[in-house]
Amino acid sequence: MDIKIKDVAKTAGVSVATVSRVLNGSELVTEKTRNKVQNAIDQMNYHPNATAKYLRSKKTMTIGVIVSDINVSYYAEIVKGIENMAYSRKYKVIICDAQNQQDKEVAYLELLLNRTVDAMILITHMVSDEVINEFVDNGYHIGVIGRFIDSPKVPCIFTDNVKFSKQVVEHLIERGHRNIAFLSGYPDALDSSERLEGYIKALQEHQLEYKPELIENGDFNEEGGYKAFKRLLDKNITFSAIYSANDEMALGVYRACAELGIQIPNNIAIVGVDNNRISKYLNPRLSTVNQPKYTMGALIAEKIIDQLNEDEFDLQRVFKIDSELIIRESSDFKI
Amino acid sequence: MDIKIKDVAKTAGVSVATVSRVLNGSELVTEKTRNKVQNAIDQMNYHPNATAKYLRSKKTMTIGVIVSDINVSYYAEIVKGIENMAYSRKYKVIICDAQNQQDKEVAYLELLLNRTVDAMILITHMVSDEVINEFVDNGYHIGVIGRFIDSPKVPCIFTDNVKFSKQVVEHLIERGHRNIAFLSGYPDALDSSERLEGYIKALQEHQLEYKPELIENGDFNEEGGYKAFKRLLDKNITFSAIYSANDEMALGVYRACAELGIQIPNNIAIVGVDNNRISKYLNPRLSTVNQPKYTMGALIAEKIIDQLNEDEFDLQRVFKIDSELIIRESSDFKI
DNA sequence: TTGAAAGCGCTAACAA
DNA sequence: TTGTTAGCGCTTTCAA
C-alpha cells in the first residue's frame, strides 16, 4: 500500500510526469505508452494519494454542508440531492451537523479557511449575511438554501414562503375557517418570519382580523408542535384550523388531538409544510406544501461546482422555487 | 488569504518550525516566543493549510460513513452520533449515501485507498465480509454497525436481533395472538434474517406453527410496508398481529388499516423496531424496540478514532447492544 | 511525445 | 529552546 507514482514510473519505464498524464487522462500520451503505464498501475494495484494531489492542485474536491439537524427529513432530503450531484461530479460531501448551535456553525466555517473544503453550502440561519459576505469577498465559495444573500457571487435557492403561506391560509378561509392559528418555528429563521408574513397577508386581504394570540412557536419539531397546540387550547380562544410551519409540528398536533379526542378535520383542520415522506401515511393524510427538497439540493450543488470550475457562462445564481399546496384529508372539509 | 507559515515566521521573527510548534501546542516554546508568534498569527489572520498538514502528517482527520439512505431516521440518528463524537475529537465526517447500490458502496471504499479518509464506517450490508477483511489486512481501518466481522481489528456494534425479536413475538403471544405475521426488510440484510430467526424461535418455543405464508418483505420503507400488508390480506389467511422489522413499514400498515377501517390494536396488533422519533406520535402510539442509535454511532466513532491513534489499551472491539421493547397502545390489548 | 525538476505548505528529525 | 532542512506524493512548467 505504500506504492507511489515514482514506483509505477520505474516499473513502466517512464517518468513520473508520464504516469501523471495517464492518471489525469492527458491527450499527449501515445497509445503504447498509455498501455504500458496502465498495466503497471493495474499490476501494482496503485492508488494515487489524493492528499498530495489536493495540495498540489489546490482543490480538495470536497464540499461542506452545514445543516441544523441531519435527522430532520427536510435537511436529509436536501443533503441527498447535494450528495448525488456532487458524486456525479467527483466531489465528496462533508456533513456538518450544527445542532442549532451558533458556535458549531461558525467553527465549521473554518473548514473553508483551512482549505479542507472547496466550498460550503449553508442551509442554516445562524450565520449572518455579513459574515457570509465577508467570506465571499475573500474569495471563498458559499451557497445557501432557504435565504437570499445580496451578493453577486452567492448561489441562492429558496422558496416563496409568503406566496405559499398565503395559499395555505386562503385554502383554509375558503373552507370556511375564520380563526386560524399559526405554529411558527425557530424565531430567527427566515422560514418562520416569512411564513408568518404570508399568513398575515392572507388574513388582511380577506378582511380577517390578525390575532397575535393565535400564534405560537413550536421549534419545528414534534414535541414543540404538541406543546404549542396545548398552549393554544389553554388560552381558551376560538380557532378551527391550524397552519403549521412544518410537518413535524403538525404531527405533534395530531398526537394532542388523539389524546383529547379532537377530530381532524371535523373539529380542527390542519395544514403543514414540507411534504415529508410520512405526511401521506398519517391518518387523516396531512395537507401540506411540497418543496422540491432533493432538487433544491442538487441544484445548489451544481451551481457551486460550476462556480468552482468557473463555468460562469451560466449567470443565473438566484432561484426562487415554486412550491405546491397539496390538499389532503386533514384540511379538506368545509365547515 | 495566501499567507503561509513562512510569512508568519518572518513577521514574528522566528523560524517556521517555531510557528509550527505554536500551532500544534508544543511544550518546547517559551511563553514569550509563543506570544510573539500568536500575535503575528492573529494580526495576519493566518489559517494553516490543512491539506499540506494532511500530506505531511499522513492523516486526514476525516472519517467516511457509508449508509444506505441518509433520509432514513435510523441512519441519520447513527450519523449524528458519529458526527458528534468525531467533532469532539477534531475529526470530520464524509457522508456516503449508497442508495442501496452496491457499485456506489464499492466506489466509496476507494476513499480509503486514496487516503481521502483515515477510516470508514459501514452501516450497510452489501459489501461482503471478505472485502472488508481484505481492506483490514492491508492496514486500512474499518468499523461496522449492524453486523459482526470475524477479524480482531474491526470494531463491531450490533444489537441482538434474535433476542429482541423473540421478546416482541412473546409479547404478542402473551396478549393472546396465535397467528402473527412478519414484515421483513432487504432480503440480504442481517437485520432481516436475524429478526426472522427470532420470530421463528419464539413460535417454536411456544409450540406455535411457523407458517411461511405469514412472511412478507416490505423493503424497510412505508410504501413497502403498505403493500406487504395488502398482500397478506389478499392471501385470505388469518392473522391478528404483525411484527414489522422497522417502524417505517409499520407506518405503511397504519395507513392501510386506516383506509380499510381496521382498528389497531383491537382488530390487529402491531409492533415495529427502531423507536423512531415519530413512533410515539402516531395514533395509536406504536409499540417498538428501542435501539440506542445515537449511542451506537458515537461508540463506533470513538473506537475507530482510538484505533487510529493506537490507544489500544482498550481492547474491546465487539459490542452487543441491548435493545428494549417499548409496549405502547398499538399492541397493548389482550384478545 | 516525453522527461527533469521545481514546488504546493507543512511537520519533524537533527543540529545548534 | 530554537532553527535548518529534507521531504510528504503529486502536478506542471520548461526543455528536449
Describe the structure.
The structure is a homodimer of 335-residue chains. Chain A has helices spanning 5-12, 16-23, 31-44, 50-57, 73-88, 102-113, 129-137, 161-174, 190-205, 222-234, 247-260, 293-308; strands at residues 62-67, 92-97, 119-122, 141-145, 156-159, 180-184, 215-217, 241-244, 269-271, 288-290, 318-321, 324-326. With 335 residues, chain A is of the alpha/beta class. In chain A, helix 1 packs across helix 2 and helix 8 crosses helix 9. Helix content of chain A is 44%, strand content 15%. In chain A, strand 1, helix 5 and strand 2 (92-97) form a beta-alpha-beta unit. In chain A, 49% of the residues are buried. In chain A, the strands form 3 sheets. Chain A has a 6-stranded parallel sheet with strand order 2-1-3-4-5-11, with helices on both faces. In chain A, strands 7-6-8-9 form a 4-stranded parallel sheet, with helices on both faces. Chain A is elongated. At the A-B interface, helix 4, helix 5, strand 2, helix 6 and helix 11 of A face helix 4, helix 5, strand 2, helix 6 and helix 11 of B. The structure holds a DNA duplex (16 and 16 nucleotides).
List the helices and strands and how they pair.
The structure is a homodimer of 335-residue chains.
Chain A: H1 5-12, H2 16-23, H3 31-44, H4 50-57, E1 62-67, H5 73-88, E2 92-97, H6 102-113, E3 119-122, H7 129-137, E4 141-145, E5 156-159, H8 161-174, E6 180-184, H9 190-205, E7 215-217, H10 222-234, E8 241-244, H11 247-260, E9 269-271, E10 288-290, H12 293-308, E11 318-321, E12 324-326
Parallel strand pairs in A: 1-2, 1-3, 3-4, 4-5, 5-11, 6-7, 6-8, 8-9
Antiparallel strand pairs in A: 10-12
Chain A binds a DNA duplex (16 and 16 nucleotides) through residues 4-6, 14-18, 20-21, 23-24, 28-30, 33, 48-58.
